[in-house]
Amino acid sequence: MLTISVAVSSLNIISKKVTPFANLVVNALKVLSGYYFPIAALNEYLGTDNSLWLQQNIPIVTGLVFVRDLMLSSNDISYSIFWDEYIKSMIFGTLIAMLLSLFLYKYLEYKSQRWGSLEFY
């Protein structure tokens, strides 16, 4: 979530009217993370392969699926399953999101410096 917050707030460097876009991102994340309904309910609309891809590759969704699976199981998840299905994808997805948000921030900071839209440069 922090990387998504940095990416959305970096848009604030360029434009001061980011609130509607930020609300759109938050609501999209709620839908994709299973906040309103389980991701498995999207199988009919997205297809099973796309739904599984969301569950395995987006860190927020993977974390929520992990917590749900941990609560529903009797705490007997083996380390290899724990690492392969949950932690590896969460770490990899978080690193990619961090790099993308850092790149977006630096790019928009450079643009605002060139345009002279920041006051203290």
Summarize the model shown.
This protein is mostly helical and 121 residues long. The protein is 77% helix and 0% strand.
Task: Note down, in words, how this protein is organized.
The protein is mainly alpha-helical and 121 residues long. It contains six helices and no strands. The protein has helices spanning 2-14, 19-33, 43-46, 48-57, 59-72, 79-115. Helix 1 runs parallel beside helix 6 (79-115). It is elongated and about 55 Å long.
List the helices and strands and how they pair.
Layout lengths: L1 H13 L4 H15 L9 H4 L1 H10 L1 H14 L6 H37 L6
Helix pairs in contact: 1-6, 4-5, 5-6
Main beta-sheet strand count, sense and barrel state: none
Provide the β-strand percentage band: under 5%
Order of helices and strands: HHHHHH
Overall form: elongated
Low-confidence sequence ranges: none
Mean pLDDT: 78
Gyration radius, in Å: 18 Å
Q: How many alpha or pi helices?
A: 6
Helix share bin: over 70%
Report how far the terminal alpha carbons are from each other. Answer: 29 Å
Secondary structure class reads mainly alpha
Number of E-type strands: 0
Looking at this protein, list some descriptive labels:
mainly alpha, 121 residues, 6 helices
